[in-house]
Amino acid sequence: MLPLWVTLLLVVGAVLVLLYQGAAILFAYQLTRLEPLPPESAPTSRGRVSVIIAARNEADDLGGTLDDLLAQDYPDLEIVVVEGGSTDATRDVIAARGPRVRLVDEPPLPAGWVGKSWACWVGARATDAPWLLFLDADVRTHPAAVRTTVAWAEREHLDLASIGVRVEMVGVWEKLVLPIWVQRILLTYRPAHMQRARPRAPMANGQFWLTPRSAYQRVGGHEAVKSWIMEDIAIARRYRDFGLALRFAWSAPLGRTRMYRDRHEMYEGLLKNAHGLEFSAARQTGTLVALFAFYLLPLGLLPLAIVEGSGLLLIGLGAFLWVALFGKHVGFAVSIGAPAAYGLLYPVGIAWYIGVTAVSLVRGIRRRPVTWKGRAYALHR
Predict the structure, then answer these.
(1) Over the stretch 137-147, which tens digit does the pLDDT of each residue have?
(2) Where do the CATH 3.90.550.10 domains begin and end in the chain?
(3) DSSP string, 164-232
(4) Buried b (16+ CB within 10 A) or exposed e, 289-324
(5) Among 41, 83, 136, 256, which residue has the fewest nearby CB atoms (within 10 Å)?
(6) pLDDT category, 44, cuts 50, 70, 90?
């Protein structure tokens, strides 16, 4: 039989776990949703929009992305692709869609710049359009995506309008890991806070975000965040700090993407985002402890209560934790397109995430560079 103080500690811990896990459900419910404007809504131009895509070895995805953009119903649209020295057929994909798609060669990467920010900065300076839409090369869009987003930005008087698109999951590890990634995003960047004038944790989705050129220039554009791996979060902070209006909306109908083509690419992608170039051993250690404490450790309450003969309170609470935790992860998996069975395997996905965070911690302590798409970036001192 466990001592009373241990029982009370376990009960308090279980309640905290339930509150933490339930917060992800609440934050998902609070997300602003954006639906495509109907076809009968007149696609009148609200000013030219320049879609800027940074493309480096994107031949597998870029063609479909460009074809979707060419089918947009926004009447004044230009497409600028900044080609970053690809070694695959990316240039051929762009050339095949000329002249409606403009190819801009990326100059050599200057010291202190991260590749994506450099390409976006080059693209922004290659056009004088009053609206800039930064789009990832693997994002497929609804024909009304541009028109809907511009109308939303104008209606809400936004200086930065960003949407979250549907994440396609094909491989086993994508289905195990990415539902957890979605939950962690929700818990870090709380949707309700994004509706405030000055959100504590501002967020933009680098896959799809729209801004008036005037606001982009005011915050210094990508040049102001040139050394950040997670440039979208850094630039959202710039908009917040300048007192500009920014919002994030979830819109699976407007766009979709397969973020990673295989397990290796997903590992490299999530590893680069684990701490970016701003490494903190304390933060990474805290993340490791939180992942274990809030996702895996609670599953031990039921077997502990049974072995210790702790009575119906702890046994019932432990059983409820199992049902609640597995049920929540099944719900999240299904809601973003993964089979329910992958929710039942969520401890495997958490273990994978713990492994990535541990590698990030070790690499950071050793001051190892962050690598992505064949480029290496030294950690900030």
Answers:
(1) 999 999 999 99
(2) 31-165+205-259
(3) EPEEP--SHHHHHHHHHHHHHHHHHS-TTGGGSSS-SS----TTEEEEEHHHHHHTTGGGGGTT-SSHH
(4) eebeebbeebbebbeebeeeebeeebbebbeebeeb
(5) 41
(6) low
| Strand order across the 246-250 sheet | 101-105, 77-83, 49-55, 131-135, 208-212, 160-164, 246-250
Q: Where are the beta strands (DSSP E) in the chain?
A: 49-55, 77-83, 101-105, 131-135, 139-141, 160-164, 166-167, 208-212, 246-250, 255-257, 370-372, 375-377
At 216-252, the pLDDT tens digits run 999 999 999 999 999 999 999 999 999 999 999 999 9
- Low-confidence winner among 138-152, 284-298, 307-321 (lowest mean pLDDT): 307-321
Q: Which CATH architecture has domain 31-165+205-259?
A: Alpha-Beta Complex (3.90)
Write out the two tokens for 230.
């997670």
27: tokens are 């934050």
Give the three-state DSSP class for 299: helix
112 touches 36 (CB < 8 A):
no
Per-residue model confidence as pLDDT tens digits over 194-220? 777 677 888 899 999 999 999 999 999
Burial 72-103 (b: 16+ CB within 10 A, else e): bbbebbbbbbbbbebeebbbebbeebeeebbb
